[in-house]
Specification:
By secondary structure, this protein is of the alpha/beta class. Helix content is 54%, strand content 11%. The chain contains 12 helices and 5 strands. It has helices spanning 11-24, 37-46, 63-72, 88-96, 109-122, 143-154, 161-167, 172-183, 187-205, 210-216, 222-233, 237-244; strands spanning 2-7, 28-34, 51-55, 79-83, 101-104. The chain has a 5-stranded parallel sheet with strand order 2-1-3-4-5, sandwiched between helices. Helix 9 packs across helix 11 (222-233). The protein is globular, with a radius of gyration of 21 Å. GO terms for molecular function: DNA-binding transcription factor activity; sequence-specific DNA binding.
């Protein structure tokens, strides 16, 4: 059975798509549902799936940005775009960005069946893993490499030096020295930089409010978040977002 992630902001539409897929009687099952592109990116960090069906028009992160972000992460996961007649120009953009096909809404059995059959036919024997890229075994990586991986996995949340040291079975003071030697910056500065890079990505690619981004990154105080962002990025979150429209 092949797994599908459905990305669509309307819950009832997701339910209708799921029923339509079931009615094709093809070997597919809906393994996950997300309400926008950002949710889908988060979901795909922890889950494997064979295929994605995504709407274009969604709040927070639209389907085209989701597709771009997916490709930036070197994920060649097949994506089928769902859209209405009025947004055909977006379909062209999506196909240029690497979408494998598109379907017009409402999705009907007679339309989705040949699309899924096409995917089955084109699937080669050497199927590339659709989930997160395979990782080295922990024993093959240095403690600092393991900590860097842990920091990125904890995003958007924070992580302390003590927690990181415990994860790699080292003394916190020793890890701190090791990290600075290897990365040429302190553990705290590195974590802060990674979190502000994530804030920049969210400001650039989503419609989340600044307060929502601060909360997502674990900041209870928006002024503290804004101050930190400005210190590292040279301008406040609101100033940064204004430049995107210029």
């Amino acid at each position: 059975m092949h797994s599908i992630l459905v990305v669509e902001d309307e819950r009832w539409v997701r339910a209708a798509i799921k029923r339509t897929i079931e009615r094709t009687r093809l070997p597919f099952t809906v393994a996950g549902e997300c309400g926008n592109g950002l949710e889908a990116l988060d979901w795909l960090e922890k889950n494997r799936v064979d295929l994605v069906l995504t709407d274009i028009r969604m709040p927070v992160m639209d389907g085209l940005t989701f597709l771009d972000q997916l490709r930036e992460r070197n994920r060649s996961l097949p994506v089928i775009i769902l859209t209405g007649h009025e947004s055909f120009s977006f379909v062209q953009q999506a196909l240029r960005a690497g979408a494998m096909d598109y379907l017009l809404k409402p999705v009907e059995v007679d339309e989705i069946r040949p699309c899924l059959e096409k995917w089955l036919k084109e699937r080669t024997l050497a199927v590339e893993p659709s989930g997160p890229p395979p990782e080295k075994e922990a024993g093959e990586r240095s403690p600092v490499e393991q900590v860097i991986d842990l920091i990125r996995k904890r995003l958007p949340g924070d992580i302390t030096l003590t927690e990181a040291a415990a994860a790699v079975h080292l003394n916190a003071s020793y890890l701190s020295q090791l990290f600075k030697q290897r990365m040429n910056r302190t553990f705290v500065d590195y974590v802060l930089q990674v979190r502000m890079d994530e804030a920049e990505r969210l400001l650039r690619h989503t419609s989340l409010r600044i307060s929502e981004i601060a909360e997502r990154l674990g900041y209870s105080d928006i002024s503290g978040f804004s101050h930190t962002f400005k210190r590292l990025k040279g301008r406040s979150p609101s100033e940064f977002r204004k430049t995107l429209g210029e």
